[in-house]
Design a protein that fits this description.
Elements: E1 3-5, E2 22-24, E3 30-41, E4 47-54, H1 67-85, E5 94-100, E6 115-123, E7 126-130
Parallel strand pairs: 1-2, 4-5
Antiparallel strand pairs: 2-3, 3-4, 5-6, 6-7
Length: 132
């Protein structure tokens, strides 16, 4: 698998990332990209794209990454990874970054999993954090 540093957008190769691709972030945890989901209009009337990553170090049992560290990682993932993946496409209204300690099927409840979500409005080609 290829490791990509997302601290600097210039280090990213444009084009679609492959499932299983490893991604490094500022916290030092190594994430595995596993899925891009385009669920259509969510919230109502807005197009969103979700980028989902496995992040074992956020696990409530044995994890060592704090929510603050994960939040900084998710901002970098939106700014660098997600926008690079969307290059050449019409940008969505919203990008959602999901970190989970294990793969969880999109839209399904998984109370045993630790999951963090952040939502970003895409404005002038930049990710602007928005609370859900």
């Amino acid at each position: 698998m290829q490791t990509i540093g997302v601290i600097c957008a210039a280090g990213l190769a444009p084009g679609a990332a492959a499932a299983g691709e490893m991604v490094a972030v500022p916290s030092g945890q190594e994430l595995r990209f596993y899925e891009r989901v385009d669920p259509g209009a969510w919230p109502a009337g807005e197009r969103s794209v979700h980028f989902r990553f496995v992040a074992p170090r956020i696990a409530r049992d044995g994890g060592d990454i704090t929510i603050a560290e994960a939040g900084a990682d998710m901002q970098v993932l939106c700014d660098s990874f997600a926008l690079a993946q969307l290059a050449g496409e019409e940008l969505p209204d919203r990008i959602v970054i999901n970190l989970t300690d294990r793969e969880v099927p999109f839209g399904e409840a998984a109370p045993e999993a630790t999951q963090f979500f952040e939502s970003y409005r895409v404005e002038d080609g930049a990710c602007i954090w928005e609370a859900f």
